[in-house]
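Below is how a single chain appears once it has passed through the pipeline. First comes the sequence as given, then the structure the pipeline wrote out for it. We keep one example in the README because the format questions we get most often are answered faster by looking than by reading.
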Amino acid sequence: MMDQSLTLAIIFLSPFLGSYSAYFCINWPKQQDLLWRREAHEILDLEFKPISYSGSFWKSDCCQKPLKIHHRLPVMGYILNQRRCPSCNNFLFKLYPALEVTHLIIAILLSLVIPNAISLILNLLILSALVTLSRIDFKTGYIPDECCLVILVCALTIQLNTHTLSSHVLAMMLAFGALFLLRYFFSMFKNQEVMGLGDVKLYSVMAAWLGPSALTSILLGASLMAILYTLAMLITNSRVSKTSQIAFGPFLAISGIVVFFYYAQ
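Resulting structure:
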């Protein structure tokens, strides 16, 4: 009975996690841009005058004005505000309701295959991190270390009370080593970087989550989806060309999620 109540509470609260995910997707690139600009100015010994930007969850993403609690209510806040910022009247990011509903769906699907509430929370955090980093990588080409760290901590915590912790740690090390070497040799062969180090980190923490038996499935699934996506973009005459760089992180994340639900059934 307790687990059922906790499960319902987790499902109810999952859109709030989606709200924070959207906030992170919008503000992480801004914060990184400020950080990179500051470092560049320090290297060049130039004065750096940052713009006024706090990045607080309780401030508007567009004008940085304080928000009230009801403004951050998942979906309802977006509707009650008539899709506009309460301070500057600019249109709000549609990413908020989209990720809030996505997290609700994820929580419901997880509750169908995971009866334990603690495991449900940990896996929900992992899937949330995967969704978040996929959006950021697709838009910016960067995978936040924060998301990879969340996946790693939750993945190892899940394995603490099992006899498979050592095999999952070994899988993480093998995944990192194999993909790092693959990245290194392909980069040497093509004389350009063919894969970011963020993809290597993501693959390794997903190996820690899903274990050694999923290594091949994750990589093959992601590679196949990336190839099909690239072909589709080329056929439809999109801006993608044969020399364009395509974010691989979202395909790794989708492949890992599919593998997870396949094994969880």
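The CA atoms of residues 172 and 215 lie 9 Å apart.

See the next section for the split statistics.
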